[in-house]
Amino acid sequence: MQSANVLLKKIVRSSVLPFAAQHGMKKDLFPLSRTLSLSLCLKQDNSCNPPKKLDLDAWKKVMKSGLQEEVSETVSECKELSTLAAARELLEMWRLAGRLVPENISDEQLKTFLECPSKSAKKKYLRYLHLKELYKKNDKRKMDEKRERRLESQEQASKTDENKRNSFICLWANCMDRAYSWRVAQSMIFGQPLIFDMSYEKDMSVREVANTVRQIVLSEGCNRRSVDPFHIHFCNFKDDSLYHKEFIKHYREAWGKLLITVTDQCYTDVFPKDKLIYLTADSPKVMKTFDHDKIYIVGSMVDRSIKTGVSLARAKRLGLETAALPLEKYLLWNTGAKNLTLDQMMQILLTLKDTGDWKKALEFVPKRKYCGFVSKPVRQLQKTLNLINTLKLGKRQEEVQKQFAKSYSRKLTQK
């Protein structure tokens, strides 16, 4: 047994350990040889049979095969690293040449790049990675800009907070809040009612309902700060509706303290029908003047798909009078829908109530929807529009000349 251990140690020292030292595996093989020698000693002690001869040649083959596998794995890893480094250098040259190549690329992305079957596939993959990197950079830049804006706003807010610490400013703000509340409280007794029809929840998605409530919150703020506010009514309002949930999200504890009237009844049950006017963009009747004795109804609906005729059909079913704002009479309207947001409608109605001037009121219409205010008479504009339409429809030149001749002869006879 001692001779076998001695031979084992000699073999390990002479052949295996130098090979392992060259490849950095000496630390792993030394405990392995020690365990082999100990296992042989234990077998000798426990077995009663005479010891068998150790087949050293077979053991050498086993050890060499394991070492060869490890060496082959290390060689394959080295080859893979060399190919990845060559691919990185190639991509760097392409990037310097002006091709669409990402600046930072991982090893996994390089492997997928090398596995692409053709050059076009490789180019498309690199372009995809380049665009992805650009999107990430743009998102990061936007986030940094938002962070800078937020920090600037916080700094400005801190400066304004220092100014607000002044007792006079705080007293003035409290007094203004009380004055606004007092005006709204007076409007609930003596003011003109304005109705928001809250019966369009089924015609909208959850997102559209949230946008509607946001616009109504802005409308309530504008009405509260006005000189002569409306008495706002929420009709057809249900407690467990999406409207109610969104209002609680916005107002929280202040929802129960709002100076407005909320009811689940229809407006035809609360007010007489002859005083109600439903404001809708689909109405054929155009509103000429603001009537202080009438009660105007605004549909609480935001429709991105622009569902025409919904509010008009509801008003007709209830037998109510309808009206539309005279947008074409005072504005050179562009192509597009004539639907306005609820806060814009509130500002227009408040301005009409205070001044009665349509030009001042229609300044709250977004400027992207019209070219300017009408300066010529409506008849001349209608004639020019008719001529433009005839030219667009592609009528014959003779018919157009006849129309011009008729109009010219009429002007001569009038003179």
TrEMBL record:
User: Do you know which Gene3D superfamilies this protein is assigned to?
Assistant: 3.40.1280.30
- Where is the stretch described as Disordered? 140-159
Domain (SAM-dependent MTase TRM10-type): give its ranges. Answer: 180-372
Task: Name the EC number(s).
Answer: 2.1.1.218, 2.1.1.221
Domain of life of the source:
Eukaryota
Among the entry's GO cellular component annotations, what is one? mitochondrion
- Which reaction does this enzyme catalyse, per its entry? guanosine(9) in tRNA + S-adenosyl-L-methionine = N(1)-methylguanosine(9) in tRNA + S-adenosyl-L-homocysteine + H(+); adenosine(9) in tRNA + S-adenosyl-L-methionine = N(1)-methyladenosine(9) in tRNA + S-adenosyl-L-homocysteine + H(+); an adenosine in mRNA + S-adenosyl-L-methionine = an N(1)-methyladenosine in mRNA + S-adenosyl-L-homocysteine + H(+)
UniProt entry keywords in alphabetical sequence: Coiled coil, Methyltransferase, Mitochondrion, S-adenosyl-L-methionine, Transferase, Transit peptide, tRNA processing
Q: Which InterPro entries match?
A: MT_TRM10-typ, MT_TRM10-typ_sf, Trm10_C_MTase_dom, tRNA_m1G_MeTrfase_euk
**GO annotation (BP), single:** positive regulation of mitochondrial translation
Q: Where in the cell is it found?
A: Mitochondrion
| The UniProt record lists the keyword S-adenosyl-L-methionine | yes
Which molecular function terms from Gene Ontology are attached?
Answer: tRNA (adenine(9)-N1)-methyltransferase activity; tRNA (guanosine(9)-N1)-methyltransferase activity; tRNA binding
- Quote the protein name from its UniProt record: tRNA methyltransferase 10 homolog C
Organism name:
Grus americana (Whooping crane)
Q: Which gene encodes it?
A: Trmt10c
